[in-house]
Each structure stands twice: as structure tokens, then as C-alpha cells.
Write a structure and sequence with these properties.
2 domains, mainly alpha, elongated
């Protein structure tokens, strides 16, 4: 089953295969490494370039969350 999934798309993560097959992530990892003799070659890191609108939205959300944290700290007397 795992071999068939990997034959269709080798870019799938262990988590994605586990969700698709209903098997445990550890079992999938064991099957891939021990039985199919596969290994991870590299992890790709893709830079995230945000638009101006996305940056503004992120800033607003962060400020909101900081405000909520301050309110909770005052209410519960923590921090």
C-alpha cells in the first residue's frame, strides 16, 4: 500500500501518507526506511516573500494578540 502511494507521488510527507493510509506515522517511517530502503534527501526551504498587504495584516494580528495577552495578564495577575 505504501509503495503504491510513493509510486504515485514521491513528494508526499510521512504525515500525508499516514493520513491517506490510516497507518501510524512511525509505521510509515519504518516501512519507508527499513523495507523500501528510502531516505530523505533534503528538505527544501522556500523563502516567504510577503506582500505589503500581508505584512500589514500580520502586524495587525500580532498587535491584537499582544493586546489580548496584556488583558489576560492583568485579569489573572500574571507576567
Amino acid at each position: 500500500m505504501v509503495r503504491a502511494v510513493m509510486a504515485k507521488d514521491r513528494r508526499l510527507s510521512v504525515r500525508m501518507i499516514a493520513e491517506g493510509t490510516g497507518l501510524d506515522k512511525n509505521a510509515i517511517h519504518r516501512i519507508l526506511t527499513d523495507h523500501l530502503h528510502m531516505r530523505k534527501i533534503c528538505a527544501k526551504l522556500v523563502p516567504k516573500n510577503l506582500s505589503v498587504e500581508q505584512k500589514v495584516n500580520r502586524l495587525e494580528i500580532c498587535q491584537y494578540l499582544l493586546g489580548q495577552n496584556s488583558k489576560l495578564s492583568q485579569i489573572f495577575g500574571i507576567m
